[in-house]
Design goal:
385 residues; five-stranded antiparallel β-sheet; alpha+beta; 50% helix; seven-stranded mixed β-sheet; single chain
Length: 385
């Protein structure tokens, strides 16, 4: 994709996000007022906390995303902020659209995108209670309620009463078919997903750190291009690793030589570069500047090679990468231990279990001191007797 299109996307998309956050927030305020007037009559909706959290966090984090852009912040920070802004937009959409309305004939459930599906109470095939959440099954579809839903308890009671009037029995209670934590946790799949996400993220960051630590080579970015110019002035920025900013009369954007501290004694002399001599540069164009990867004279004498630049980058990142690798190994180990503790809590002391799970996360059998393996052993003893 051409750099112009990429630059336009990174400039236009944040502005569209900002407008969307404002519009969703205004619509959310209007809906909140309407729902308060109705006093949630036969309506299940999410708490306004999602509205305020999504609007405030999304509005605050969209400032650096929009004003600074991808080239004004470290890539990892920008993508983290952008991901968080998208999560905030989803929170606003969930507050606006995720609702259930009901009456004597049936109920209508609306999802994140506002798609509505209407059901009769006879289509409810069961109810599954899991920790602080409740799942209503309608054939292959599921409607989940948790503590953030307002009016869910009244709806479930209404549905149970409607079923009793229609067929003489209330909501059928379902049991979990598969339990990765052996029935020891109220929300087993949630905790397992969190730990697996930690392991996957740790492995991904571990591989990235190893990639940075690999031996330097003379490769250039795929979008690097060659430029011929002479520099007229310079300035040195004492940022994290040091940067030489060079100005050329033929270009509006400056040229930057980054990671100066990684060059050590091989750092280029900015005064020599501004002597008026023409240089051949290998650069990558950013929104506000050109990043220099290699510099050579007109007679092909190397001043900075791509190998020098890549070596300087790795020198500045070495300590951080080693720390990341150690941390990711620790996080992976702790996540694996967390899964083992969840599956076999009887093997660990209560104090050690609290390092990974709150007391309310355990099922009633574990809180009472009886885990599934213990119950199975007691059943076997009874059979032998």
């Amino acid at each position: 994709m051409p750099n112009e299109i990429v630059s336009a996307l990174f400039s236009v998309v944040p502005i569209v996000q900002d407008v969307l956050i404002v519009l969703l927030f205004i619509r959310g305020l209007l809906l909140r007022k309407k729902r308060e007037q109705l006093k949630h009559y036969r309506l299940v909706s999410l708490s306004p906390i999602l509205l305020w959290t999504g609007a405030i966090c999304g509005g605050v984090l969209s400032v650096p995303v929009t004003l600074l852009g991808l080239n004004g912040t470290p890539d990892a920070v920008w993508y983290l902020f952008e991901f968080t802004v998208l999560v905030c937009i989803v929170m606003l959409l969930v507050y606006l659209n995720s609702t259930v309305t009901y009456d004597e004939k049936g109920f209508t459930a609306s999802n994140l995108f506002g798609i509505k599906r209407t059901y009769g109470y006879d289509r409810i095939t069961g109810i599954l209670r899991s920790g602080g959440g409740t799942v209503l099954r309608c054939g292959r579809r599921s409607i989940r309620f948790d503590e953030a839903h307002i009016g869910s308890g009244s709806f479930i009671l209404f549905a149970d009463h409607a079923l009793r009037k229609e067929r003489g029995s209330g909501l059928p209670v379902l049991k979990r078919k598969k339990d990765p934590m052996n029935g020891n946790l109220d929300t087993p799949w949630l905790h397992l997903t969190i730990y697996l996400a930690i392991i996957a993220a740790s492995i991904f960051i571990f591989i990235l750190a190893l990639h940075v630590l690999r031996p330097a080579d003379g490769s250039l970015p795929a979008d690097a291009r060659e430029v011929r110019t002479a520099f007229s002035s310079y300035e040195v920025n004492e940022d994290t690793y040091g940067t030489i900013v060079l100005h050329a009369p033929d270009y509006e954007k400056p040229f930057s030589i980054t990671y100066l501290s990684g060059y050590k004694d091989r750092a280029p002399d900015p005064e020599a570069l501004c002597s008026g001599e023409e240089y051949i540069l290998s650069v990558r164009e950013g929104r506000d500047e050109y990043w220099i990867y290699a510099v050579s004279t007109a007679d092909n004498r190397s001043v900075i090679s791509a190998y020098d630049r890549n070596s300087a980058y790795r020198s500045t990142q070495y300590a951080a990468c080693v720390i990341l690798i150690v941390m990711m190994c620790v996080f992976t180990f702790l996540a694996i231990v967390g899964i083992v503790v969840g599956r076999h809590p009887e093997r660990f002391s209560p104090g050690f279990r609290r390092l990974f799970y709150k007391d309310w996360a355990w099922s009633s059998s574990v809180r009472s001191g009886r885990t599934r393996p213990q119950q199975r052993r007691k059943r076997k003893r009874r059979r032998r007797k």
